[in-house]
């Protein structure tokens, strides 16, 4: 069943964890969960006793195109049935208590899920109903609990956001994007020699206009300008622009100077 | 203005980044953003030209109690006005192009924001309108762009989820929760001596009932049982239960044995 045409061309990415929604109440939330799963590269969705039955058109409307995840979702009578073919099951639980069980952060859980799927084993993550969360019997069926570190003064997280954080950590656990890069369009990063050319150009014009006429202060002033321009990566295109700016500012001054002396 | 009583008792946590929503369209999303901010310990919200004006009752209804963040939000005519008192501004942008700018991951950005606020400087994060995202002039006002690593086949992220990921990473950047811990209620983790006591108890009963009668296989069988019980942490309470289980199973066998021989 597809609620709208043109859903994203989603497919399973490798061996990935199953998201298991236990007794979800609102179909809109199931759709929003599918969207969050797609963001993080998850595909397999199982529903245990959805309150309003299944399928529900409203789920597809709130999935923003993650239709294929909903199309492929399965429905189960109980948690046992939803996890029977899996080797590891984690349960999300914001406030665990009176229970002896390993507790993982979302990041720690994602790393373990990557290790488990990497060995070809099946795994799943239980998410409880919107209001009550998982009950004690649900949690007793899990290897470990996952508890997100979040502001203890405000832990209330909606279902789709809980899935979003887990899906994001799942994706990040196998992502190698450097924390900071300079995006440079077509232009290359200028090397130190190209930067030196510009600083010489600037210094020459500043010498000519008299800005650096104080011989005692001149070395420090040049050094301060250098510090500013050496601070980070500059592209060759940006250097060309800076050369132009200096040339044009100096030219304006020269023309004005000529006018003044004429 | 407070849309409902009993909102969470939220207050700023230290020097934290300002979330700046640029031309947000739906007031519901502004409320959901406030909720996500509260989850991650963010407090300061600024709105640039909200489409439907401000305040909007619907925002408070979707904030799930994060009222104080909305109460304290300020409204600005343009991005310049919203960032004038800040020292660093990052802009979220899912698909940057034709632009020369550092690009950070959410995690890399959160680490830099922590370093900036730790020096007592002010910083903010720009989030664009729901449909179009930030325009080129908005992005030109930022030090760096933040781009979340996510499934390239499905990048569509709603506004509150974009804020959720950033708020979560902000919180995580200063969180020391170990990735895995055993939660043990009141009971303590058993030490190796206590575990040994149980294994001896089990072995003695298995010797008595004849399960280990094959002298040649006995050492390996005991070792395999030991491997199972030594695998992870066991609490003292769990060991007491296991002692009871073995005693009772053996007792049942003894009584039955007595009946059979009588």
UniProtKB/TrEMBL annotation, chains A, B:
<dbReference type="GO" id="GO:0008173">
    <property type="term" value="F:RNA methyltransferase activity"/>
</dbReference>
<dbReference type="GO" id="GO:0003723">
    <property type="term" value="F:RNA binding"/>
</dbReference>
<dbReference type="Pfam" id="PF00588">
    <property type="entry name" value="SpoU_methylase"/>
</dbReference>
<keyword id="KW-0949">S-adenosyl-L-methionine</keyword>
<protein>
    <submittedName>
        <fullName>RNA methyltransferase</fullName>
    </submittedName>
</protein>
<feature type="domain" description="tRNA/rRNA methyltransferase SpoU type">
    <location>
        <begin position="18"/>
        <end position="168"/>
    </location>
</feature>
<dbReference type="InterPro" id="IPR001537">
    <property type="entry name" value="SpoU_MeTrfase"/>
</dbReference>
<dbReference type="GO" id="GO:0002128">
    <property type="term" value="P:tRNA nucleoside ribose methylation"/>
</dbReference>
<keyword id="KW-0489">Methyltransferase</keyword>
<dbReference type="InterPro" id="IPR029026">
    <property type="entry name" value="tRNA_m1G_MTases_N"/>
</dbReference>
<comment type="similarity">
    <text>Belongs to the class IV-like SAM-binding methyltransferase superfamily. RNA methyltransferase TrmH family.</text>
</comment>
<keyword id="KW-0808">Transferase</keyword>
<dbReference type="InterPro" id="IPR029028">
    <property type="entry name" value="Alpha/beta_knot_MTases"/>
</dbReference>
<dbReference type="InterPro" id="IPR004384">
    <property type="entry name" value="RNA_MeTrfase_TrmJ/LasT"/>
</dbReference>
<dbReference type="GO" id="GO:0005829">
    <property type="term" value="C:cytosol"/>
</dbReference>
